[in-house]
Amino acid sequence: MDKLRFLDLCELSAETDPVRDGIGTLGEKTLHAVLKAYFEPASQNREIKLGKFVADIAGENGVIEIQTRHLYRLREKLEAFLEFCDVTVVYPLCAEKYVRWLDMDTGALSPRRKSPKRATPHDIFDELVNIKYFLDNPRFTFCAVMIEAEDIRYLNGRSKDRKKGSSRCDRVPLSLIDELWFRSPDDYRELIPASLPGRFTVQQYAKACRISPDLARSELNVMCYLGHTEVTDKQGKKNIYRILPPKG
Predict the structure, then answer these.
(1) What Rg value do the Cα atoms of the chain yield, rounded?
(2) Alpha helices for the chain (secondary structure H)
(3) Parallel, antiparallel, or unpaired for β 53-59 and 238-243?
(4) How many domains is the chain partitioned into structurally?
(5) CA 58 to CA 45: how far, in whole Å?
(6) First to last CA, the chain
(7) Is 113 a member of any domain?
(8) Is residue 133 part of a domain?
(9) What is the dihedral of CA 23, 28, 29, 32, to 10 degrees?
(10) For the segment 1-48, what is each residue's pLDDT rounded down to a tens digit?
(11) pTM of the full predicted structure?
(12) 159 Cβ neighbours under 8 A, 6+ residues apart
């Protein structure tokens, strides 16, 4: 992890005026571009054609794919790339977020406001559940990048203040907070809270992790697939889970 180099890349990207340069109409968003430059300084190793796909980064350490959302879109690429090389998927999470509003009529950009929404490592499972069958492949690595970022949103929502239901113009990274690396199925086990009882429900898991029941359900789906938890029985319509001992 190199926080200073990441900050330098963020500051370089900040020299672009989102109004003047039309951020949101570009083929590549700011966050994706910064992460790509951070994980591979050599531009000749970026955007490499491999078969019928183009890898974000390809070099002696394999392929790196930067995906800021919708991990399910990587399925075909992962199936193809994992046949012949190591693959790392990089996924950013906003642990600290600010919001600015862009008026499309006037071009005015509002002052920065801190958002109460903060991502935690558990948020990876909202997306990982869609690619869980790759997580136990020995060639697969997942990296969650915890960042501070600024969302620039269009004032084009359906509410009176035009904010509710608005679309995002761009996400601009401000700093690197942490990198969480998952190189093997055992690494995901570290996210299971130690405070759980011997047998527990989705709701108890959600409370222990301080996440929503829906997210807890996705996380347990992945944990069961990886062999860290299992469903033991039911209590009415609720599944009852338990933590399995580590293999080997």
Answers:
(1) 20
(2) 3-14, 30-39, 75-81, 125-128, 185-188, 202-209, 213-225
(3) unpaired
(4) 2
(5) 6
(6) 31
(7) yes
(8) yes
(9) -160
(10) 899 999 989 888 877 654 444 443 334 589 999 999 999 999 999 999
(11) 0.89
(12) 165
